[in-house]
Amino acid sequence: MRNWAIAGILYVTVVIFGFQAYDKWIAEDQTKAAESESQMAMGENKSKQEMSGGHQEEEKESTHGHEMTSEDHEGSEVNAFVQIDKSKIKIFLKDKAGNPIDELEVNHEKELHLIIVDEQLQKYYHVHPERTGKGEFTINNNLPEGFYKAFIDIKPTDFAYKVEPVPFVVGNPSTAAHGHELVPDTKFRKTVDGETVTLNVSSFKAGESVTLSFDLDQTNLTPYLGAMGHVVILDEYGKEFLHVHPSNDQEPIFETTFEKPGIYKIWAEFKQNGKVRAFPFVIEIKE
Known about the structure:
Blueprint: H1 2-65, E1 78-84, E2 88-95, E3 113-118, E4 124-127, E5 130-133, E6 136-140, E7 146-153, E8 166-170, E9 189-192, E10 195-201, E11 209-215, E12 221-222, E13 230-235, E14 241-244, E15 253-257, E16 262-272, E17 275-285
Antiparallel strand pairs: 1-2, 2-6, 3-4, 3-7, 5-6, 7-8, 9-10, 10-11, 11-15, 12-16, 13-14, 13-16, 16-17
C-alpha cells in the first residue's frame, strides 16, 4: 500500500512538471514566432516607406522640371518647354506623350513667334528662334539678369494649342525685383526713338468688340512680318495673352475683345524707316 502511494505521488509530480515544461517551451516558441512576424512586418513597412519616399523624390524632381514648361491647359494638346543657359534659349514642343511636334503653319512669315516679358511687364522682346531639330528651336540668349515669362506663339497643324506663360530665370536676380503694379495711362501718346504714336480705343468695356487704331507717321511705315503692325496684349498678371494683327493690309487698325475687366498692357509694334519699335500702353477695361 505504501509503495502504491509513493508511485502515485511520483506519477503526479512527473505529469505536473511535464505540463509546466510544455507550457514554457510552447510560450517561448510562440513569443519568438510573434517577434519574427513583427520584425518581418516592420521590415516590409520600412521597405514600403523607402519606396514611397523614393517616389516622392521623383515627383519633386519631376515637378521642379515642369517649372519651365507651359501650364497644362484644358483643350491644349501641346506642351512648350524652355531650356536656358548662358548663351542659348531653346524651345521644345511636345505632345502629351512626349513626342516632338514638328508640323507648324507659317504664321506671318514665321513658324514660331517668341514673346518674352520680364515679370514686371517693363521689358518686352519679340524674337524668332531658328529651327534646330524636330520640335526644337534655338536663339541666342542676350537677356539681362531677371525673372521672365515666355509666350510661344505657334499654330500646330494637327494639335489644339493655347499660348500659356512659361516662367524662367536668367542669372541670380534679387527677389526684390518681384512685383510691379501697372498704372493705367491717362494719355495714350508715346514717343520712342523720336517716333510718336497715339492710341485710340473704341470701347473700354469687357466683352465688347474693341477697335484699337493708331495715329502715326505712315509715310515711313512699311510692313513688318507681313502686316502693317503687330499688337501684343497681356493682362496685369502676365497670364492672358493676345497677339492681334491689323484688320486690313493698309492701315494700323486692330480689332479684339477683352473678355474680363482689368488692367492690360499693350505693345504696338511698327516698322518705320527700317527699324521696328514697340510702343507700350496701359489701359483699364471695366465691366
